[in-house]
Amino acid sequence: MPDLLPRYDTATLADVLPALLHAIGAPLDHRAPAFALPPARAAVLLLVDGLGHDLLREHRADAPVLAGLADVGPLTVGFPSTTPISLTSLGTGLPPGVHGTLGLKFRVDGHLLDALGWSAGRKDLRETLVPEQVQPEPTVLERAAAAGVAVRSVSPLEFRKSGLTRSGLRGGEYRGVAALGDLAVEILSGVAGPGPRLVYGYHADLDKLGHLYGPGTPAWRWQLRQIDTLLAMLLEALPAGTLLAVTGDHGMVTVDRVTDADAEPALQDGVALLGGDPRARHVYARPGAADDVLAAWRATLGDDAWVVSRDEAVADGWFGPVEDRVLDRIGDVVVALRGTAAVLRREAEPFLSSFPGQHGSLTPAEQLVPLLVHS
């Protein structure tokens, strides 16, 4: 059994936006929120990509403002603990098995879709796999805007029309930014004026430096300090009656035990497509080969991974409830890496395979994120 299965039945990242809307008096339905937040006129959610609960606790001296906020969490993020899944869960308020974004790379209608670039290799798939059809459920932002909430997303300029934004975070006004300075300005202007107002802000650089250098390294810590400074300035400038929440989309580990699937014949036999990422793999078998592929991956990875069939992963709740329409997107074999192990693809994924920092699996270091609140 994995170290930590997502707590889909209690409180996950998917519950954050509905709870914030409840706090500003604009609930999406009559159900009580998963956790109680202080009432407010307006709410800001700042999502710091790669801000894991364990990492923040370990490096709290570098982020005294963040560490000093009330932590309503920790929350689990869902599986795989990777940005496309987490942001779509956040944006839709749904578990992965319902919204259907199920991996960094996962099979959709025969294509191995890279959900970050909405592509296959260099081929843009936004017309072939229309994001609004791949993920057709209405988002929380759409529903809130339709109910009269002034909704704003503040995120990098280049993500405005990305497949991931269109799929999981569509709705409301999008304000594209280039750095921390305009991120702060757009957040603050988004909560100015009469309520109710909801602003979602996204910052990517902590995750970027964690991948490039490893979480907890000097470069990563300096970035955390910058985020802490940003937060201190926001707290000084936010209008009265504004609730500020900060969370992450996953944690991260530094990998030191690697298996290269592109150089290991036992991990290639019977495999039609290999998706996921180095810490969480979807293995799509050729017809009739699923049992042999499962046995080969279990034998090869041994204690470095939890290796299960699709049916086992679904029955054990790795993805939460799974809709029939997305069942085929899950690998015939699902692999979650243990400890600090990884399954790389140095030939097919050279850039991704070069990173010391990785995430995606079912360990507390990757699954747990804080939910820090100031009102």
TrEMBL record:
Q: Which Gene3D superfamilies match?
A: Alkaline Phosphatase, subunit A
User: Which InterPro entries does UniProt cross-reference here?
Assistant: Alkaline_phosphatase_core_sf, Phosphodiest/P_Trfase
What Pfam families would the database entry show?
Answer: Phosphodiest (PF01663)
Q: Write the protein's name.
A: AlkP superfamily pyrophosphatase or phosphodiesterase
Q: Which organism is it from?
A: Pseudonocardia parietis
